[in-house]
Amino acid sequence: FWCIDNEADFLVRAAPHSLGLRKRNKKKFDIVEELRKYEGCGGTTFKLQYGSRELKRYENCYLHACQLPTEKANEARRQLKKKYAKRSKTPSEESLYLAGWVLVVTSLSPTEYCRDSILKIYRRRWQIELVFKRMKSILDLSQLQAKVGNRLAEVWLTGKMIYILCIDRQLRRSLDDPYLFLKRKWTQWRPWSLLK
Prior knowledge:
Elements: H1 2-5, E1 11-13, E2 22-23, H2 31-36, E3 43-52, E4 57-67, H3 70-86, H4 93-98, E5 101-106, H5 115-138, H6 151-174, H7 189-194
Antiparallel strand pairs: 1-5, 2-3, 3-4, 4-5
């Protein structure tokens, strides 16, 4: 509820059961049953509420559902089965069905942002997440152990950010260098790992 309380909007990948989604008329929302009605049409948007009984608070939200193409849906299901197999478990039929959909929950109104725009924004947000993941893993940003408000931590993080900007700038200049990527397919990870 932090976003709503601070007059901000949110956009997250939906984990249907963890958000406490329900219809706006306070009736139970069976996501699989509802999505089955829209199979084959690409996707849909639901006006819902999220919240919890314990807090006795619910807020309006929108669930944007986009059905994956058959090939991608089958690959997502295969990955899900593989993930569960590592823990000697089997995914539920519901989980396997939902793996064929991209589900995004947001407070942004569909009158302002259509489903396609919301999914584009989500994909961009995901790219930002990948940048942070790359910074944490390759540049050891996760190694900082300091308390909030620590001046030394601010200096350390500022130095790391300047370092990251310098590396990024140098990489952009070097991308024309044909020898940098010999014998390997180019990925965003390759140049970063070469600079470590």
